[in-house]
Design a protein that fits this description.
The structure is a single chain. The chain has 267 residues and is α+β, with helices and mostly antiparallel strands. Strands 5, 6, 7, 10, 11, 12 and 13 form a seven-stranded mixed beta sheet that branches. A two-stranded antiparallel ribbon has the order 1-2. A two-stranded antiparallel ribbon has the order 3-4. A hairpin with a 6-residue loop joins strand 3 and strand 4. InterPro entries: ADH-like_N, ADH_Zn_CS, CAD-like, GroES-like_sf, NAD(P)-bd_dom_sf.
Protein backbone atom coordinates (compact mmCIF):
# COMPACT_ATOMS: atom_id res chain seq x y z
CA UNK A 1 0.00 0.00 0.00
CA UNK A 2 1.33 3.41 -0.94
CA UNK A 3 1.76 5.72 2.02
CA UNK A 4 1.70 9.41 1.21
CA UNK A 5 4.47 11.49 2.73
CA UNK A 6 3.27 14.21 5.08
CA UNK A 7 5.46 16.86 3.50
CA UNK A 8 5.36 17.96 -0.08
CA UNK A 9 8.53 18.12 -2.13
CA UNK A 10 9.95 20.73 -4.47
CA UNK A 11 11.27 19.41 -7.78
CA UNK A 12 13.32 21.49 -10.18
CA UNK A 13 13.14 20.94 -13.91
CA UNK A 14 14.47 23.30 -16.56
CA UNK A 15 14.92 25.96 -13.87
CA UNK A 16 11.24 25.91 -12.97
CA UNK A 17 10.12 24.66 -9.55
CA UNK A 18 6.84 22.99 -8.86
CA UNK A 19 5.48 21.45 -5.67
CA UNK A 20 3.77 18.06 -5.59
CA UNK A 21 2.95 15.50 -2.95
CA UNK A 22 4.51 12.05 -3.02
CA UNK A 23 1.13 10.56 -3.98
CA UNK A 24 0.77 12.96 -6.92
CA UNK A 25 4.31 12.20 -8.06
CA UNK A 26 3.87 8.40 -7.87
CA UNK A 27 0.44 7.62 -9.39
CA UNK A 28 1.45 4.74 -11.68
CA UNK A 29 0.38 1.34 -10.35
CA UNK A 30 3.03 -1.36 -10.65
CA UNK A 31 3.42 -4.99 -9.69
CA UNK A 32 6.55 -6.91 -8.87
CA UNK A 33 8.08 -9.46 -6.54
CA UNK A 34 9.65 -8.25 -3.30
CA UNK A 35 11.49 -9.56 -0.26
CA UNK A 36 9.90 -8.47 3.03
CA UNK A 37 12.65 -9.50 5.46
CA UNK A 38 16.04 -11.18 5.79
CA UNK A 39 14.61 -14.56 4.85
CA UNK A 40 14.95 -13.30 1.30
CA UNK A 41 11.73 -14.97 0.21
CA UNK A 42 10.22 -13.10 -2.73
CA UNK A 43 6.47 -12.80 -3.26
CA UNK A 44 4.02 -10.62 -5.25
CA UNK A 45 4.06 -6.96 -4.30
CA UNK A 46 1.99 -3.99 -5.45
CA UNK A 47 3.49 -0.51 -5.38
CA UNK A 48 3.58 2.77 -7.31
CA UNK A 49 5.98 4.33 -9.79
CA UNK A 50 6.27 8.04 -10.43
CA UNK A 51 4.56 9.60 -13.42
CA UNK A 52 6.71 10.14 -16.51
CA UNK A 53 8.61 13.39 -15.93
CA UNK A 54 9.77 15.72 -18.67
CA UNK A 55 13.17 13.94 -18.90
CA UNK A 56 11.89 10.47 -18.02
CA UNK A 57 11.54 7.29 -20.04
CA UNK A 58 8.88 4.76 -19.02
CA UNK A 59 9.21 1.22 -20.31
CA UNK A 60 7.49 -2.13 -20.03
CA UNK A 61 9.92 -4.63 -18.55
CA UNK A 62 10.17 -7.80 -20.63
CA UNK A 63 13.20 -9.49 -19.08
CA UNK A 64 15.37 -9.02 -16.01
CA UNK A 65 18.60 -10.82 -15.26
CA UNK A 66 19.35 -12.20 -11.81
CA UNK A 67 22.61 -10.93 -10.32
CA UNK A 68 24.30 -12.34 -7.22
CA UNK A 69 23.99 -8.81 -5.82
CA UNK A 70 20.22 -9.38 -5.77
CA UNK A 71 20.77 -12.39 -3.52
CA UNK A 72 22.99 -10.39 -1.15
CA UNK A 73 20.41 -7.61 -0.89
CA UNK A 74 17.32 -9.74 -0.30
CA UNK A 75 19.21 -11.61 2.45
CA UNK A 76 20.65 -8.39 3.93
CA UNK A 77 24.13 -9.90 3.72
CA UNK A 78 25.66 -6.41 3.68
CA UNK A 79 23.53 -5.02 6.51
CA UNK A 80 22.00 -2.23 4.44
CA UNK A 81 18.79 -3.67 2.97
CA UNK A 82 15.52 -1.74 3.21
CA UNK A 83 12.31 -3.75 3.05
CA UNK A 84 10.12 -4.30 1.15
CA UNK A 85 12.82 -4.70 -1.47
CA UNK A 86 12.17 -5.26 -5.19
CA UNK A 87 15.51 -6.37 -6.67
CA UNK A 88 16.72 -6.36 -10.26
CA UNK A 89 19.25 -4.10 -11.99
CA UNK A 90 19.49 -5.90 -15.33
CA UNK A 91 16.13 -4.91 -16.80
CA UNK A 92 15.30 -4.56 -20.48
CA UNK A 93 12.08 -3.79 -22.30
CA UNK A 94 10.15 -1.54 -24.67
CA UNK A 95 9.55 2.19 -24.22
CA UNK A 96 5.87 3.03 -23.65
CA UNK A 97 6.12 6.76 -22.86
CA UNK A 98 8.69 9.55 -22.93
CA UNK A 99 8.73 12.99 -21.34
CA UNK A 100 8.41 16.19 -23.35
CA UNK A 101 12.13 17.01 -23.06
CA UNK A 102 13.47 13.53 -23.82
CA UNK A 103 15.82 13.60 -26.82
CA UNK A 104 17.42 10.17 -27.05
CA UNK A 105 14.43 7.83 -27.01
CA UNK A 106 10.96 7.37 -28.47
CA UNK A 107 8.03 5.05 -27.88
CA UNK A 108 8.81 1.56 -29.17
CA UNK A 109 12.58 1.70 -28.60
CA UNK A 110 14.35 -1.22 -26.94
CA UNK A 111 16.03 -0.03 -23.74
CA UNK A 112 17.59 -1.22 -20.53
CA UNK A 113 18.41 0.04 -17.05
CA UNK A 114 21.43 -1.08 -15.05
CA UNK A 115 22.58 -0.41 -11.50
CA UNK A 116 21.89 3.34 -11.29
CA UNK A 117 18.91 5.64 -11.69
CA UNK A 118 20.21 8.91 -10.27
CA UNK A 119 23.26 11.12 -9.63
CA UNK A 120 24.00 14.79 -8.95
CA UNK A 121 25.35 15.60 -12.48
CA UNK A 122 27.53 18.35 -10.97
CA UNK A 123 30.47 16.66 -9.21
CA UNK A 124 33.84 15.81 -10.77
CA UNK A 125 32.91 12.15 -11.11
CA UNK A 126 29.71 12.93 -12.99
CA UNK A 127 31.64 15.32 -15.25
CA UNK A 128 33.92 12.40 -16.18
CA UNK A 129 31.01 10.05 -16.92
CA UNK A 130 31.68 8.17 -13.68
CA UNK A 131 28.25 8.51 -12.12
CA UNK A 132 28.91 5.23 -10.32
CA UNK A 133 31.26 7.15 -7.99
CA UNK A 134 28.95 10.13 -7.44
CA UNK A 135 28.36 10.74 -3.70
CA UNK A 136 24.65 11.15 -4.48
CA UNK A 137 24.34 8.18 -6.81
CA UNK A 138 20.99 6.36 -6.54
CA UNK A 139 20.88 2.61 -6.92
CA UNK A 140 18.15 1.11 -9.08
CA UNK A 141 16.79 -0.54 -5.94
CA UNK A 142 17.36 -0.15 -2.19
CA UNK A 143 18.01 3.59 -2.49
CA UNK A 144 15.78 6.54 -1.65
CA UNK A 145 14.63 9.10 -4.21
CA UNK A 146 15.02 12.76 -3.38
CA UNK A 147 11.32 12.92 -2.44
CA UNK A 148 11.84 10.26 0.23
CA UNK A 149 10.29 7.32 -1.63
CA UNK A 150 12.20 4.06 -2.26
CA UNK A 151 13.66 2.89 -5.54
CA UNK A 152 12.34 -0.46 -6.78
CA UNK A 153 14.12 -2.68 -9.29
CA UNK A 154 13.40 -4.67 -12.40
CA UNK A 155 11.54 -7.65 -10.94
CA UNK A 156 8.48 -5.61 -11.91
CA UNK A 157 6.24 -4.90 -14.86
CA UNK A 158 7.17 -1.27 -15.46
CA UNK A 159 10.08 1.08 -14.80
CA UNK A 160 10.54 4.85 -14.99
CA UNK A 161 13.99 6.45 -15.20
CA UNK A 162 15.64 9.67 -16.28
CA UNK A 163 16.80 9.25 -19.87
CA UNK A 164 20.43 9.76 -18.83
CA UNK A 165 20.34 6.42 -17.02
CA UNK A 166 18.56 4.51 -19.78
CA UNK A 167 20.66 2.36 -22.11
CA UNK A 168 19.80 2.09 -25.79
CA UNK A 169 19.42 -1.53 -26.85
CA UNK A 170 20.69 -2.32 -30.38
CA UNK A 171 18.09 -3.92 -32.62
CA UNK A 172 20.33 -6.89 -33.43
CA UNK A 173 20.59 -7.98 -29.78
CA UNK A 174 17.88 -10.23 -28.34
CA UNK A 175 16.44 -8.83 -25.13
CA UNK A 176 16.65 -12.05 -23.14
CA UNK A 177 20.33 -12.98 -23.33
CA UNK A 178 22.49 -9.86 -23.27
CA UNK A 179 21.96 -8.37 -19.84
CA UNK A 180 25.53 -7.82 -18.73
CA UNK A 181 29.09 -8.59 -19.77
CA UNK A 182 30.52 -10.25 -16.66
CA UNK A 183 34.30 -9.94 -16.53
CA UNK A 184 35.15 -10.80 -12.94
CA UNK A 185 33.42 -11.03 -9.59
CA UNK A 186 34.39 -9.66 -6.20
CA UNK A 187 36.07 -12.17 -3.87
CA UNK A 188 34.28 -12.87 -0.63
CA UNK A 189 37.52 -13.04 1.36
CA UNK A 190 40.41 -10.54 1.68
CA UNK A 191 42.81 -10.70 -1.26
CA UNK A 192 46.39 -11.61 -0.35
CA UNK A 193 49.09 -10.69 -2.87
CA UNK A 194 52.90 -10.94 -2.73
CA UNK A 195 54.40 -7.45 -2.84
CA UNK A 196 57.73 -7.92 -4.62
CA UNK A 197 56.35 -9.33 -7.91
CA UNK A 198 54.15 -6.23 -8.07
CA UNK A 199 57.10 -3.91 -7.42
CA UNK A 200 59.59 -5.61 -9.73
CA UNK A 201 57.10 -5.92 -12.55
CA UNK A 202 55.55 -2.49 -12.03
CA UNK A 203 52.17 -4.16 -11.77
CA UNK A 204 48.93 -2.57 -10.62
CA UNK A 205 45.96 -4.22 -8.97
CA UNK A 206 42.81 -2.14 -9.33
CA UNK A 207 39.09 -2.43 -8.84
CA UNK A 208 36.00 -0.76 -10.21
CA UNK A 209 32.51 -0.34 -8.83
CA UNK A 210 30.34 -1.25 -11.85
CA UNK A 211 30.70 1.39 -14.59
CA UNK A 212 29.40 4.75 -15.68
CA UNK A 213 26.54 5.17 -18.14
CA UNK A 214 28.83 5.96 -21.09
CA UNK A 215 30.96 2.88 -20.36
CA UNK A 216 27.86 0.72 -20.12
CA UNK A 217 26.46 2.00 -23.41
CA UNK A 218 29.85 1.47 -25.07
CA UNK A 219 29.90 -2.11 -23.77
CA UNK A 220 26.43 -2.86 -25.15
CA UNK A 221 27.36 -1.33 -28.51
CA UNK A 222 30.53 -3.45 -28.58
CA UNK A 223 28.74 -6.74 -27.97
CA UNK A 224 26.18 -5.80 -30.62
CA UNK A 225 28.90 -5.01 -33.16
CA UNK A 226 30.65 -8.34 -32.66
CA UNK A 227 27.48 -10.35 -32.00
CA UNK A 228 28.56 -11.44 -28.52
CA UNK A 229 25.74 -13.17 -26.69
CA UNK A 230 25.36 -14.99 -23.39
CA UNK A 231 24.04 -18.45 -22.61
CA UNK A 232 21.05 -18.05 -20.32
CA UNK A 233 18.42 -20.03 -18.48
CA UNK A 234 15.12 -18.22 -18.91
CA UNK A 235 12.76 -18.75 -15.98
CA UNK A 236 9.23 -17.69 -14.99
CA UNK A 237 8.85 -15.26 -12.11
CA UNK A 238 7.35 -17.91 -9.83
CA UNK A 239 10.63 -19.87 -10.07
CA UNK A 240 12.66 -16.97 -8.69
CA UNK A 241 12.96 -18.29 -5.12
CA UNK A 242 14.22 -21.64 -6.38
CA UNK A 243 16.63 -19.75 -8.65
CA UNK A 244 18.00 -17.85 -5.65
CA UNK A 245 18.54 -21.14 -3.81
CA UNK A 246 20.44 -22.53 -6.78
CA UNK A 247 22.45 -19.33 -7.08
CA UNK A 248 23.46 -19.55 -3.41
CA UNK A 249 24.66 -23.14 -4.00
CA UNK A 250 26.50 -22.23 -7.24
CA UNK A 251 24.17 -24.66 -9.02
CA UNK A 252 23.86 -22.43 -12.08
CA UNK A 253 25.41 -23.28 -15.43
CA UNK A 254 24.08 -20.25 -17.29
CA UNK A 255 22.84 -16.79 -16.39
CA UNK A 256 19.32 -16.69 -14.96
CA UNK A 257 16.95 -14.36 -16.80
CA UNK A 258 13.37 -13.82 -15.62
CA UNK A 259 10.73 -13.67 -18.35
CA UNK A 260 8.88 -10.73 -16.82
CA UNK A 261 6.74 -9.91 -19.84
CA UNK A 262 5.09 -13.33 -20.12
CA UNK A 263 5.01 -14.57 -16.53
CA UNK A 264 4.52 -11.61 -14.18
CA UNK A 265 0.79 -11.27 -13.70
CA UNK A 266 -1.35 -9.16 -11.39
CA UNK A 267 -2.62 -11.37 -8.60
Amino acid sequence: MLVELEVSTVFVADRQSYRVSAREEHPVKAIGWAARDESGVLSPFKFSRRATGIKDVTFKVLYCGICHTDLHFIKNDWGMSKYPLVPGHEAVGIVTEVGSKVQKFKVGDKVGVGCMVGACHSCNNCARNLENYCPKMLLTYNSTYYDGTPTYGGYSDIMVANEHFVIRWPDNLPLDCDGKLVLVGAPGKPLELPVFPLLSGRKIVAGSAIGGIKETQDMIDLVAKYKITADVEVIPIDYVNRAMERLAKSDVKYRFVIDIGKTLKDA
